[in-house]
Amino acid sequence: MTMVLDDVVARESRHVLQTYRRNPVTFVRGEGVRLWDAEGREYLDLLSGIGVAALGHSHPALTRAITEQAQTLIHTSNLFYNPFQGQLAERLANLSGLQRAFFCNSGTEAVEACMKFARRYWHTRKEPRAEFIALEESFHGRTFGSLSVTSDEHYRVPFEPLLPTVKFVAVNDPAAIKAAVTASTAAVIAEPVQGEGGIRPLTPAFASAMAEACAKTGTLLIADEVQSGLGRTGYPFYFAALGLKPHLVAVGKALGGGVPIGAAIVSQEVADTISFGDHGSTYGGNLLACRAGLCVLDELVGGGVLAHVARVGRHFEQRLKSIAAKHAFVKEVRGKGLMWGLQLDRDAAPVVPAALAQGVVVNRTSETVVRLLPPLVITEAEVDDALGRLDAALDAVGAAA
Ligand SMILES: Cc1ncc(COP(=O)(O)O)c(C=O)c1O
Fold it and tell me: Which end of the chain is more exposed for a tag (fewer CB within 10 A), N or C?
């Protein structure tokens, strides 16, 4: 390790709570899809800080918006009107077809808000329904509510007891979801493309069975689009591609392009059951975060990023599939747009350092999956370069096995 890294690691290991197993790299600068570490080495970023830096790093418009807002006014709290929250809520309403947004600071808070609003809906209707149905392989966040609908035992067990009213259903099993949802279910929560669970899009057959089960019983549907939403799949929201009409949608990650912001977007029918004081956040949707959100949505829609993802996503898919076909230990390629997973027949952990050695940033999820979430602005030439490096990393992993 070098001097800079040694110093960083030593200080963190003394004073930062050790909840993260970090890769031995300190990134200090970024531009577009490129990152530089403290030693000046350049990398291509196929992870975007886990799906956050949708516009890439140091995007000129986002940098300008944040700088200007920081020089004007950063935060006032939700005790006062905010010149940007209504604008951002209006844009999210236009993109989602749902009327109203509640702003928070992260994905888990967005899920938490959706779960509280679902409970509040049934409470207001004087038909208290407590039960949530979630899917196996799901990931919705680390706070107690979100963790309660997250399936992975590894995340759950040390913190039990969690919410007692959660049932898990096998993903992409239409009969199972139909059997599970009843007139006591408050809400079904699902990621239209499961992210941490290994990049698993819901099948249209499962989505329609889920929609039918919800419609039949009056159950609310919560779409967790924290990872899959806002352009990642080439659609504003992947629920629309599946023909779903959720009552509540959770967003986060890409919304601020790196500035923390999340939102629960809800239908007017749900909104009508919520009262003043039911939920709140000191920071949620402050001026700085909303300016960032407005800039990201500007670029996504007016700036042509969505259309770009649809195009470059097809190129990414073709290149990735042809590379995957060369490596016998890659069993399946799953994803949409610029959200991809390589299912390996083994632990994917060695791929991450091998990729870093080739100058490309990727991630392992669900133990055996290599996850790729590049900035949405990646060009075809950058895709070729980055996937060429991943190919070399897979060669190295294959040779070492
Ligand atoms: C689908 C989904 N929901 C919720 C979350 C939690 O978001 P955060 O880490 O911002 O709390 C994540 C994070 O990976 C996610 O992928």
Answer: C
